[in-house]
């Protein structure tokens, strides 16, 4: 069960935004990720709780940020309920999308679990609902993902397989790369892995159709 800490910063000017203390692991249902976020000053600022099924679909999502809350799941596309800080008002949303995304590295891992790309595959388009800080406002985004290469590196804990993805925002054409090993993001725009207490998990082979 990997445990560690990511630092989140503005990808443009590198302003520190948060520290994300996380733990994650494959489980009976697929994969679960849980994290607590703190501000650069050390104050609690939110949490992420995401569970995927064995096919990479989000079967449970709970986000907290600035007293806002979102609960969601894959249901008729993706469905969510967003609650304001007072708890008096809740709005439900539904979009014909594949999954969720957001600032947390968890969503990058989740997207790769859903797409299951191979280095020889062409670019794959995916529609996601992004929850943007600080009020978890929903926004539908279209992306294209390509697995550029897969490399295995020798480490003290055995071989480590690292996947390098190219992600394209289809509305702007902006591209960036993401490096992932198992269920840990090694590098991505706005994300740095600062500490990792144990090696990334290795996912089992996907179920047969």
Q: Please write the string of helix (H) and strand (E) elements.
A: EEEEEEEEEHEEEEEE
Q: Rg from C-alpha positions?
A: 17 Å
Indicate the low-confidence ranges by residue numbers: none
| Structural class by SSE content | mainly beta
Average predicted confidence as pLDDT? 93
Estimated share of beta-strand residues: over 45%
Protein name: Glycolipid-binding domain-containing protein
Organism: Streptomyces doebereineriae
Layout of helices and strands:
Blueprint lengths: L2 E7 L6 E12 L2 E9 L5 E9 L5 E8 L2 E7 L3 E6 L6 E6 L3 E4 L2 H11 L8 E9 L4 E19 L2 E12 L5 E7 L2 E5 L2 E6 L13
Parallel strand pairs: 9-10
Antiparallel strand pairs: 1-2, 1-15, 2-3, 3-4, 4-5, 5-6, 6-7, 7-8, 10-11, 11-12, 12-13, 13-14, 14-15
Organism: Streptomyces doebereineriae
Protein name: Glycolipid-binding domain-containing protein
Would you mind describing this structure in some detail?
By secondary structure, the chain is mainly β. About 5% of the residues lie in helices and about 60% in strands. It has one helix and 15 strands. It has one helix spanning about 105-115, and strands at about 5-10, 15-25, 30-40, 45-50, 60-65, 70-75, 80-85, 90-95, 100, 125-130, 135-155, 160-170, 175-180, 185-190, 190-195. It has a 15-stranded mixed β-sheet, covered by helices on one side. The longest helix is centred in the middle third of the chain and has 11 residues, at about 105-115. The protein is globular and about 55 Å long. The relative contact order is 0.18. The model has no long low-confidence stretch (mean pLDDT about 95).
């Amino acid at each position: 069960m990997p445990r560690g800490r990511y630092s989140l910063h503005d990808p443009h000017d590198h302003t520190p935004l948060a520290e994300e203390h996380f733990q994650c692991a494959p489980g009976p249902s697929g994969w679960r990720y849980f994290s607590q976020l703190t501000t650069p000053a050390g104050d609690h600022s939110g949490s992420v709780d995401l569970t995927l099924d064995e096919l990479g679909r989000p079967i449970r999502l709970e986000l907290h940020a600035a007293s806002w809350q979102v609960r969601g799941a894959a249901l008729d596309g993706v469905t969510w309920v967003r609650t304001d800080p007072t708890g008096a008002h809740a709005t439900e949303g539904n979009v014909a999308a594949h999954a969720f995304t957001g600032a947390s590295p968890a969503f990058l891992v989740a997207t790769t679990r859903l797409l299951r790309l191979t280095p020889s595959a062409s670019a794959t388009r995916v529609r996601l609902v992004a929850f943007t800080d600080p009020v978890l406002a929903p926004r539908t985004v279209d992306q294209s993902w390509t697995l550029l290469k897969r490399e295995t590196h020798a480490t003290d804990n055995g071989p480590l397989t690292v996947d390098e993805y190219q992600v394209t925002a289809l509305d702007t054409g902006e591209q960036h790369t993401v490096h992932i090993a198992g269920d840990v993001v090694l590098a991505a725009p706005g994300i740095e892995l600062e500490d990792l207490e144990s090696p990334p998990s290795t996912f089992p082979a996907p179920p047969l159709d």
